[in-house]
UniProtKB/TrEMBL annotation:
HAMAP family: MsrA. The lineage of its organism: Bacteria, Pseudomonadati, Bacteroidota, Flavobacteriia, Flavobacteriales. Keywords: Oxidoreductase, Signal. Its EC number is 1.8.4.11. One of its GO terms (molecular function) is peptide-methionine (S)-S-oxide reductase activity. This is Peptide methionine sulfoxide reductase MsrA. It catalyses: L-methionyl-[protein] + [thioredoxin]-disulfide + H2O = L-methionyl-(S)-S-oxide-[protein] + [thioredoxin]-dithiol; [thioredoxin]-disulfide + L-methionine + H2O = L-methionine (S)-S-oxide + [thioredoxin]-dithiol. It is an enzyme of class 1 (oxidoreductase). Residues 42-192 form the Peptide methionine sulphoxide reductase MsrA domain. It comes from Polaribacter porphyrae. PANTHER family: PEPTIDE METHIONINE SULFOXIDE REDUCTASE (PTHR43774), PEPTIDE METHIONINE SULFOXIDE REDUCTASE MSRA 2 (PTHR43774:SF1). Residues 1-23 form the signal peptide. The keyword Signal applies. It comes from the Bacteria.
Length: 217
């Protein structure tokens, strides 16, 4: 019985930390960052978008990262509806970047180097189809870059265990405003302290050469 009580307590605490456990949902606002003429956009999903957004925003050449939803089959998804796992969407980040400073291939390296691509439908401690790993492409050249990276990693590291979806990008829905820059604005929030910041710091330690100057300290 003692073991059962302890297990229940652990499960309860993890649920409180979950990226999905949050305050009320605001209305979906599709006002998105306004890029320059040279800016390109890449889309990646690899678990809680609070974490993913912060990671990409630390990379040189990335002008902005916007949290949202993509990869689904319903219109106008919200945080509440994607949490049911029935909309098909994954928490996704739109990465606005200057290709003269950072390449799409490098962003793919950041994507695979900052999460576990062998975990199906989740990144600890968040699980469900809305947290699955997806690398989106907008053209054949990007698709080839992603597929070549997967082949290389499967051969050298993951022994053909990568479950990342390679998906044609169609529609991105910006998430509710309170999700944007959530980690930066809420450094003392429980999930951010326990999961987001440690994940960001692991990425920084792994790829110091890719960081913006202000992110190195």
């Amino acid at each position: 019985m003692k073991f059962i009580r302890v297990s229940l307590i652990v499960i309860f605490l993890m649920s409180l930390l979950s990226c999905y456990a949050n305050t009320q949902v605001e209305s979906n606002n599709n006002t998105i960052y306004k890029p320059s003429n040279e800016t390109k956009i890449a889309y990646f999903a690899s678990g809680c978008f609070w974490c993913v957004e912060a990671i990409f925003e630390s990379v040189k050449g990335v002008e902005e990262a916007v949290s949202g939803y993509a990869g689904g089959f319903t219109k106008n998804p919200t945080y509440q509806t994607i949490g049911t796992g029935k909309t098909g969407h994954s928490e996704t980040v739109a990465v606005y970047y200057n290709p003269k400073v950072v390449s799409f291939a490098t962003l793919v390296d950041v994507f695979f180097g900052s999460h576990d691509p062998t975990t199906k439908n989740g990144q600890h401690p968040d699980y469900g189809t809305q947290y699955r790993s997806i690398a989106f492409y907008s053209n054949d050249a990007e698709k080839k870059i992603i597929e070549n990276k997967i082949a290389k990693l499967n051969k050298e590291i993951y022994n053909n265990k990568i479950v990342t979806e390679v998906t044609k990008h169609t529609k991105f829905y910006k998430a509710e405003e309170y999700h944007q820059d959530f980690e930066k604005r809420n450094p003392n929030q429980g999930y951010v302290k326990a999961v987001s910041i440690p994940r960001l710091n692991r990425f920084k330690a792994k790829f110091p050469e890719l960081l913006k100057e202000e992110e190195k300290y």
